[in-house]
Design brief:
Layout lengths: L1 E4 L10 E4 L2 H15 L9 H9 L2 E2 L3
Antiparallel strand pairs: 1-2, 1-3
Length: 61
């Protein structure tokens, strides 16, 4: 299981994504960013994706 916390990339947000693959986490993050942070798809830059990827960690629960 992999886990990502929105707070880890600088947002004041308690949202967490969990999934089996990095791609699954990234898809959840994109949906969360557009819905909850009112970000447009073009605002989800390669730099932000890189920050997200570097903050995806293995989780035992």
């Amino acid at each position: 299981m992999l886990k990502f916390k929105c707070r880890d990339v600088g947002f004041d947000c308690g949202w967490t994504a969990k999934g089996k693959t990095e791609d699954e986490i990234l898809a959840q993050c994109a949906a969360h960013a557009t819905k909850d942070h009112n970000m447009k798809p073009e605002e989800i830059t390669e730099e932000l994706k890189g920050k997200i990827k570097s903050n995806i960690h293995k989780s035992w629960f």
